[in-house]
Amino acid sequence: MDYINIAIAKGRLGDEACKLLKAIGIGDSIVPESRKLIFKDDEKKMSFVYVKPWDVVTYVQNGVADLGIAGKDVILESDSDVYEILDLGFGKCKFAVAGIKGKEIYKKDEVLRVATKYPRIAKKYFEERGQKIKLIKLNGSVELAPLVGLSDVIVDLVETGNTLKANGLEILEDMFGITAKIICNRVSYRFKYDRINKLIESIKEWEERCSEDN
Predict the structure, then answer these.
(1) 93-177: CATH architecture
(2) What is the architecture of the domain spanning 4-91+179-213?
(3) What is the DSSP string of 81-110?
(4) Which of 82, 174, 164 is closest to 125 using CA atoms?
(5) Which stretch of DSSP H or E encloses residue 156?
(6) d(C-alpha 107, C-alpha 133), whole Å
(7) What is the CB neighbour count within 10 angstroms for residue 58?
(8) Is 111 left (phi over 0), alpha (psi -120 to 50) or beta?
(9) How far is CA 36 from CA 2, 4, 79, 99, 174, in A?
(10) What pLDDT sits at residue 207?
């Protein structure tokens, strides 16, 4: 029997994913505090690989992993050719347009300067609203951009909003919510359908039990 290979995003999302997998009885081989990147369960024919969040989709799309657990933000920005088969409900946050208080987002005949780690998502969002933008790709500390005049606004993930407030910024417009998803390689979905479906059903049953307990 072939292994089912699952790519898991490192960090808080990975910690939640690990708890979930252990709860349904397939993640016992995972040791999150270890420096290992691959964990195998030969008895259950399961293999888990820990990768950076941005790489989960790449591993799944290229068939190295059959399944992946990643945030919707990464999936959207990757614009990948994978199946999105289950919303896990954890890792909740939202995309938002933020900036200095009172800043106008929509300017008919002007170009809005937008700093972001997510250029694909930002471009699509403003195109749908008919606003011309100049994208400024940053890899970190996007909150700094409006403060030093690099951009008019930012597009970023927001969980509590505390980082924005600490830097004198505020949400100007909510965009959409984000949660963790299970994605699947298209070929794997076809050839390993029964085992993948059984795993998904186990997760759904566990979620139902948790809902009933609460």
Answers:
(1) 3-Layer(aba) Sandwich (3.40)
(2) 3-Layer(aba) Sandwich (3.40)
(3) --EEEEE---S-EEEEEEESTT--S--TTS
(4) 174
(5) strand 153-158
(6) 10
(7) 18
(8) beta
(9) 22, 18, 29, 40, 38
(10) 86
Domains 4-91+179-213 and 93-177 fall in the same CATH topology: yes
The domain locations on the chain are: 4-91+179-213, 93-177
pLDDT single digits (tens) 50-99: 999 999 999 999 999 999 999 999 999 998 889 999 999 999 999 999 99
Measured in residues, the chain has a length of: 214
The residue to which tokens 């993930």 are assigned: 157
Provide the pLDDT for residue 60: 97
- Here the tokens at position 213 are 């307990």
Distance separating alpha carbons of residues 156 and 18, to the nearest angstrom: 26
CB 78 within 8 A of CB 57: yes
CB 82 within 8 A of CB 184: yes
Question: Which tokens go with 103?
Answer: 């800043």
* pLDDT of 164 above 70: yes
pLDDT at residue 214 in the model:
62
Q: Which residues contact 138 (CB under 8 A, 6 or more apart)?
A: 115, 116, 117, 145
Token couple for 171: 């949400």
